[in-house]
Amino acid sequence: MDLVALEAFIVRAKRATYVGSGEPAAPSRAGSHDLTLVDGDWSYRDSYFGGTDFHGQEVVWHRGEPVWAMSYYGYVLRPDLIDAPRAGLTIKAALSAMYAEGRFLGGFEWHGPHGLYRDASTGDAAHFQGRETISVEGVEAYALDYFGGLVRE
Questions:
Q1: What are the C-alpha distances in Å from 2 to residues 68, 92, 99?
Q2: pTM for the full model?
Q3: Which of 9, 55, 137, 140 is deepest in the core (most CB within 10 A)?
């Protein structure tokens, strides 16, 4: 698997779907919210449940075969400091800035009107884990844990 091409597609897909407020796709499972992108030999689906607290999975297929996946769980820790709409605005703005750098893994900070966004991860697109947070007034108010990598038969 060409990791450079895979990572470039993941960034395009993430930018076009959640961050870019892409059109929702038909739910793949009862109660899920799904976003998809198809681009040549590549396809992507982000499928999640919930809103304020949510769990999801992203999968990339190349020529119809699953090649990469990521699971995540995000949650508001301090609803007195941040709510789901403000957290979502912060995440979309921060990730848009990170994707503009051509990457999706951590080592990134972004200051916005609703808090300080931080993302830290270990590994690369082949195998990784990480955490994104939003701190408000120096207090961690939102967090998301994620992990994933290549899928092989």
A1: 12, 27, 19
A2: 0.94
A3: 9
